[in-house]
Design goal:
binds 3-isopropylmalic acid, about 40% helix, binds manganese (II) ion, two-stranded antiparallel sheet, about 20% strand, ten-stranded mixed β-sheet, 12 strands, alpha/beta
Length: about 350
């Protein structure tokens, strides 16, 4: 029995999660797997009422589940940082989801903003370190509020943390079995402590994977290649901050936030799957947001649970709909409402 914890969260989160759950129900019926869900109300509304983000007992409870399905976290009435660190980052860190896996795959060239790029040109995966770096929250103010103020934000990288991420990327690249090319994306020319460790570790681990071709690109150059020659990439491994930045660009070249999904992975624990776009306050409650990113996140969740056939069916159905039905992947321009897109996936599964 798969036990799935569902955190719809804020903004459009509940709307897209509802569509994902419709697809889960249909997939379970078709492929015959048992599951149960429990809803958790972590998010802005609960925070505004009770002042609570996420407590240790909540984490303990979530550890009992097979996977977590998350909508979105963030609300215009709550100061930026409180919900993000108190809920989203707390979940990632305390469940030790040390990988953020973000596939960048173009399903329909009509939705690609790059000229002349086809689905086979935009098909790579970013393995983002998800537990350290600048996200560790280390730093301090000196002389706060004075003209001499200094704000220090530390990028914290451990050999163990870097190595487990790089190893995951090599293994993933081998298993993906496509071009078998792993690119390290960093900034060795300026961030000479952090990226020295990353590069040394990458070179050492690479020796154990003679079947994988390795490469290196600075993060600024990586953004250039995403636009110019995305076909050069197969798997990319990078740190938390760079991974955050390049995957928003990745989302755009695969057709936009409406389709981009990701997984926060703990390979030996509880993983969490989410659409990578935010809570989209501007579209909330209008039945216009694209639920496909959340549906793709559900596909990744099913894959992790070992329901490979169901996962593949979900992805194939999304591809079919994106190729043949949707006018656009953008909110309000799809030619269908949020709930209608969910229904389309269910009908075509
Ligand atoms: C993401 C988001 C988060 C991040 C925010 C909401 C904290 O941008 O998942 O990419 O920076 O990781
Ligand atoms: Mn981001």
């Amino acid at each position: 029995m798969h036990k799935i914890a569902v955190i719809p969260g804020d903004g459009t989160g509940p709307e897209v999660i509802a569509e994902g759950l419709k697809v889960l129900k249909a997939a379970a019926k078709k492929f015959g797997f048992p599951y149960e869900t429990k809803m958790f109300d972590f998010g802005a509304e609960r925070f505004l009422k009770t002042g609570k983000t996420l407590e240790d007992k909540d984490i303990a409870e979530l550890k009992q589940y097979s996977a977590i399905y998350l909508g979105a976290i963030g609300h215009p009435e709550v100061k930026p940082g409180i919900l993000e660190t108190g809920i989203l980052l707390k979940l990632r860190f305390s469940l030790d989801q040390y990988i953020n896996l973000r596939p960048v795959k173009l399903y329909n060239e009509a939705f690609c903003p790059l000229k002349d790029k086809k689905p086979q040109d935009v098909d790579f995966v970013v393995v983002r370190e998800n537990s350290e770096g600048l996200y560790k929250g280390m730093g301090e103010f000196e002389k706060k509020g004075t003209p001499e103020e200094v704000a220090i934000q530390i990028s914290y990288n451990t050999r163990k943390g870097v190595e487990r991420c790089i190893r995951f990327a090599f293994e993933y690249c081998r298993k993906r079995n496509q071009r078998k090319k792993l690119t390290l994306c960093g900034k060795t020319n300026v961030l000479t402590y952090a990226w020295d460790l990353w590069e040394r570790t990458f070179q050492e681990v690479a020796k154990e994977y003679p079947d994988i071709t390795t490469g290196y690109a600075h993060v600024d150059a990586t953004t250039m290649w995403f636009v110019k020659n995305p076909e050069w990439f197969d798997v990319i491994v990078t740190d938390n901050m760079f991974g955050d930045i390049i995957t928003d660009l990745g989302a755009m070249i695969q057709g936009g936030m409406g389709i981009a999904a990701g997984g926060n992975i703990n390979p030996t624990g509880v993983s969490m799957f989410e659409p990578i776009g935010g809570s989209a306050p501007k579209y909330t409650g209008k039945n216009v947001i694209n639920p496909l990113a959340a549906i793709c996140a559900l596909g990744m969740l099913l894959e992790t649970l070992g329901e490979t056939k169901a996962a593949k069916a979900v992805e194939d159905t999304v591809i079919k709909i994106v190729k043949t039905r949707l006018k656009s992947l953008a909110a309000g321009k799809m030619g269908y409402s949020t709930t209608e897109v969910g229904d389309l996936v269910v009908e075509n599964l």
